[in-house]
Design goal:
The complex is a heterodimer of chains A (286) and B (317). Chain A has 286 residues and is mainly alpha-helical. Chain A has 11 helices and no strands. Chain A starts with 10 loop residues before the first helix and ends with a helix. The chains are: A mainly alpha (286), B mainly alpha (317).
Chain lengths: 286, 317
């Protein structure tokens, strides 16, 4: 790249600049922003009431006047429910990753920094959870806890803590043995200061990139739990649950029945591509 | 090698024990009296007494765990609340169906994924490479239960080529390997194969790229080895890691089949789990999950051993 020497830029402004040049990532951010904003401002954006059913207007096709995307099996407006559905779907998909990001980073940094027995205890416990396929673990826990949004978030948090803790632990262990950490320790910095200033600064980036990639899995799993009857309960609007209740409609209105899943797919693929772009922009190797 | 095998085996024991602790805990994290969760609601007082004795709910948790594990090792996984039949038998029967589905999905997903990854890694930047990366991103991002519905819409509802649900004509439970039965397998297996296809393609592509950038490839080319010979070298070097990825994916297929089995009403372990969830049949839930998780632990062990056998340089602790 032949660029004129300008004022030195910070790391984050460089990351932002690289991200802005990545058209795919940019398009994904745009799509996600539209869906997220629509979900947040659903009462303002949505054309109707997500719960108003009408036995006379059941399973209308896409393009029906007054119901742009048709109606579901109870005659509720699909467009409205898809917009409202984003609220719970995004919430139950993103919150577990945020929780796991906090808990996993804490556990991983603690294990990596202290080493020795504490590391053994934490990492071997995490190995046990790793021994479950993630879908199975999510279903086991939320199946035992019972249906409900809270339980679904708890079970998915448990699913995502181990992988995040592993990444945090491995980065912490690498950073801990670097010279500048020794230098900080020699100059009298306490453990907390070293972790706050030197370790977290190096750990948070990679872990954050990794966590953004997990959101896609989390969205699929959270909606999957609702699809199975765990997670969100009717008559709430949630994409996975909508997909489940519309399952019987694949003969009458296949296109309408497939809509909620298309939303999950769109959000999931956008998060994956955004995560890939962010990884390249931040130059993180995992 | 023998020493390694032994060490690897010993290392798997605490993991297996931990997995059984998690499974044991499932009944105890469920809200309410654990006795109520392993008994049908209309159980007689006498029955309650017997079950309390059998499960030992009046004793300390570690003792309970010991009893539970001892019975599980002997093949007694308790009795299903909903059907009253032993859980072990139900799981065993369903596991066969799931294995069939997962094996078919794996066979297709792995071979297509490996082929795609090989070609994409060898001709980097070509159209196949772009197709491979698009497919792998789509494969890992697609909610597979939705993909199953879409495939059912296209191939069952619109084209009427394949059945949408079930595991045999007329809902019969007996499986035979003829087209009348196998056609029920096609859609669920195809749906299931998408995730491993994407992941295998992605890892093989990265592996092949890595191998091609190593110096020994240049040396081989310099001494005049034809490209077909180089291809063999790539295969040989990519095999151990690819096999490890595939082994893990097979485990994920077996353990993660629940959503797809629900969509296609395929009578496997996932379907069993779905029923257990709907009817809050905790012994069935616990038993199925224990069997699937243990299978995953054993599979991981086998993958590690196979990987070391193929490439003795990897002797992991």
């Amino acid at each position: 790249m032949s660029e004129l020497a300008g004022p030195a830029r910070g790391y984050w402004s460089n990351v932002l600049r690289r991200l802005m040049r990545d058209r795919v990532a940019l398009a994904c951010i745009l799509v996600l922003a539209v869906i997220l904003l629509a979900a947040i401002f659903a009462p303002l954006v949505a054309p109707g009431d997500p719960f108003r059913a009408s036995m006379l207007r059941r399973l209308r096709p896409i393009g029906t006047p007054g119901n742009l995307l048709g109606t579901d099996e109870l005659g509720r407006d699909m467009l409205t429910r898809l917009i409202y559905g984003g609220r719970l779907s995004l919430f139950t998909g993103i919150v577990p990753v945020i929780n796991a990001f906090a808990i996993g980073t804490f556990l991983g940094v603690f294990a990596g920094y202290s080493g020795g027995r504490a590391n053994m205890a934490i990492m071997r416990t995490i190995d046990v959870f790793y021994a479950f396929p993630s879908v199975l673990l999510a279903i086991a826990i939320s199946g035992a806890l019972g249906a409900g949004i809270f339980n679904s978030i708890v079970s998915l948090t448990v699913v995502f803590v181990p992988p995040i803790a592993r990444v945090a632990e491995s980065v912490t262990t690498q950073v801990r043995s670097l010279d500048f950490v020794d230098a900080a320790r020699a100059s009298g910095a306490g453990a907390l200061t070293i972790i706050r200033v030197h370790i977290l600064g190096n750990v948070l980036g990679p872990v954050f990139v990794y966590a953004t990639g997990l959101v896609s899995v989390s969205m699929i799993l959270a909606s999957g739990l609702s699809f199975l009857g765990l997670g969100t309960k009717p008559p709430e609007a949630e994409w996975g649950l909508m997909l489940n209740t519309l399952r019987t409609a694949i003969y009458a209105q296949p296109l309408v029945a497939a809509l909620p899943g298309a939303m999950i797919f769109a959000v999931s693929i956008c998060f994956n591509l955004f995560s890939d772009g962010l990884r390249q922009a931040m130059d993180v190797k995992l | 090698m023998l020493q390694y095998l032994l060490r690897r085996f010993v290392y798997a024991i605490p993991i297996a024990l931990g997995v059984s602790v998690v499974c044991f805990a499932l009944v105890h994290i469920s809200p309410g009296d654990p006795l109520a969760s392993v008994l049908p609601p209309d159980a007689s007082l006498e029955m309650q007494q017997i079950m309390r004795q059998v499960y030992g709910f009046d004793r300390p948790l570690p003792v309970q765990f010991g009893f539970w594990l001892w019975r599980a090792l002997a093949g007694d996984l308790g009795v299903s609340i909903a059907t009253g039949r032993p859980v072990a038998g139900e799981v065993w029967h369903a596991f066969g169906n799931t294995f069939m589905l997962a094996a078919l999905a794996a066979a297709f997903g792995f071979s297509a994924g490996a082929l795609l990854g090989l070609v994409a890694g060898y001709w980097r930047g070509g159209w196949i490479d772009r197709l491979a990366s698009t497919l792998s991103i789509a494969g890992i991002s697609v909610p597979h239960y939705w993909l199953g519905m879409v495939l059912a819409i296209v191939f069952s509802v619109q084209l009427n080529w394949l059945p949408a649900t079930g595991a045999g004509p007329g809902g019969s439970a007996d499986w035979t390997w003829d087209w009348a039965h196998v056609r029920f397998l096609v859609l669920p297996a195809l749906t299931m194969s998408v995730i491993p296809l994407g992941i295998v393609a992605r890892s093989v592509r990265a592996l092949v790229g890595d191998i091609l950038s190593q110096e020994f490839v240049d040396a081989l080319r310099a001494k005049g080895l034809p490209e077909s010979g180089i291809f063999l070298h790539i295969l040989k070097n990519a095999a151990p890691t690819s096999l490890a990825v595939m082994g893990l994916q097979l485990g994920y297929l077996l353990g993660g089949s629940i959503l797809i089995e629900t969509v296609f009403a395929w009578p496997g372990t996932g379907f069993l789990l779905g029923n257990a969830i709907l009817q809050r049949d905790l012994p069935l839930l616990q038993g199925t999950i224990l069997v699937l998780a243990m299978f995953f632990v054993v599979l991981n062990l086998l993958v590690d051993v196979a990987q070391t056998w193929l490439d003795p340089r990897i002797k992991r602790a």
